[in-house]
Design a protein that fits this description.
about 260 residues, mainly beta, Porin, 14-stranded antiparallel barrel, 2 helices
């Protein structure tokens, strides 16, 4: 049984890597060995991969799995993801982003498609070097979608941050609904630290408040959660405790074990 499951997962990863490769560096490179037209990828075309399986346990819903394969070159990033909550809800998603660096201004436009007709777009940026401002904006076509960002999708983002010489970075920002009149807003305080050259710790403390819908009589939800990520060599572990996940009355715990290759 384990061999069959691992084989299925490996075939899925191989298929997804071909999809992302084709999107990022073109058919000639995605074709693989044995093709006369294939050429060795340049440094800008080499793809760094990250595979993140995540298990989600909620107090009000069935357990769920999310698989995300992300590939990035020096100039662009693409990903394929699949979310499954038993037989209740399944969704496949594709995404693409291309960072733009016009120092001291950096911004990242992102496009995403998901089955069930979902389309989304966002742009997030920073202005400054050691001390920087954070700004962002996102929109969707309001089709059915399970948000794996766990922040409002119809939103504006604003905040500040700083980088220290020892590779520590702090950022404080808020993501706020500015379309659906729910009053939803999530404030994040994120610390990124490198205790040693081969390790990294990311702490994300977040506080959320708002209503599940636009009805002013709906209950105002408030809660504070925490996400901890530990990177070591090619691997990383992430654990999150998220009250009122996606502004429902459910408390979710997420656990991920990922690999870079």
């Amino acid at each position: 049984m384990c061999a069959q499951s691992c084989g299925w997962l490996w075939r899925l990863v191989r298929t997804c890597t071909r999809i992302v490769s084709a999107a990022l560096i073109g058919p000639a490179l995605a074709a693989g060995p044995g093709t006369e037209e294939a050429e060795p990828p340049s440094r800008e075309q080499q793809i760094a991969w990250k595979l993140t399986p995540t298990y989600e346990s909620s107090t009000r819903e069935a357990p769920a799995w999310d698989f995300n394969l992300r590939g990035n070159t020096e100039t662009q990033t693409g990903w394929v993801g699949y979310y499954r909550r038993q037989e209740e809800f399944q969704q496949l998603r594709l995404g693409y982003e291309r960072p733009v660096d016009l120092s001291p201004v950096r911004f990242v436009p992102t496009l995403q498609y998901a089955t069930r007709g979902f389309l989304g777009a966002s742009i997030n940026g920073e202005i400054g070097e050691r001390y920087f401002a954070i700004a962002g904006w996102s929109r969707t076509n309001l089709k059915e979608n399970f948000s794996i960002t766990f922040d409002p999708n119809e939103s504006v983002t604003f905040g500040v941050g700083t980088r220290w010489p020892d590779s520590t970075a702090l950022s404080l920002f808020q993501i706020r609904d500015n379309r659906l009149n729910t009053g939803q807003r999530v404030t994040h305080l994120i610390a990124r630290m490198r205790p040693t050259p081969g390790t990294r710790i990311v702490l994300d403390v977040f506080h959320k408040q708002g209503r599940p819908d636009a009805d002013p009589a709906s209950e105002q939800l408030r809660g504070t959660g925490l996400t901890v990520t530990y990177d070591f060599d090619r691997y990383f572990i992430r654990v999150a405790s998220d009250p009122f996940v996606n502004f429902t009355d459910s408390h979710m715990v997420r656990m991920a074990l990922g690999i870079r290759f």
